[in-house]
Amino acid sequence: MAVTLVGARLTAVSPSIDDFxxxxxxxxxxxxxxPNDGARSPALRLxxxxxxxxxxxxxxxxxxxxxxxxxxxxxxAAVTGLEPLRVGGFRSDVLVIGAxxxxxxxxxxxxxxxxxxxxxx
Length: 121
Known about the structure:
A hairpin with a 2-residue loop joins β10 (98-101) and β11 (104-107). The chain is globular, with a radius of gyration of 15 Å. Strands 5-4-3-6-9 form a five-stranded antiparallel beta sheet. A two-stranded antiparallel sheet has the order 1-2. It is mostly beta strands. The chain has one helix spanning 68-71; strands spanning 2-6, 9-13, 24-35, 44-49, 55-60, 75-80, 85-87, 90-92, 95-96, 98-101, 104-107. 3% of the residues lie in helices and 46% in strands.
């Protein structure tokens, strides 16, 4: 559910299927990772290769469980097709996704290698 500011009050808006038409979840390989020192909360700057879709960037709050060197060369799932967002002066093009746990975010990843840019069903 999205929240929209209408006048002086917040209104909850349920997204429609059309809101998701331009979005997809794809798998890519992390080619570079470093701390995002400009972010308000601890985060990593990730460069992710999505094969035919090219390299995209993401600022991910995954520092509770992952160091930058742990992620380089691994595949991750990310939502693509989003409007770019600046996080601590860094352009974030995709949203890396994971499961929330008491110990931090556990990244969602394929259990075997797949082609970069593969869609998630």
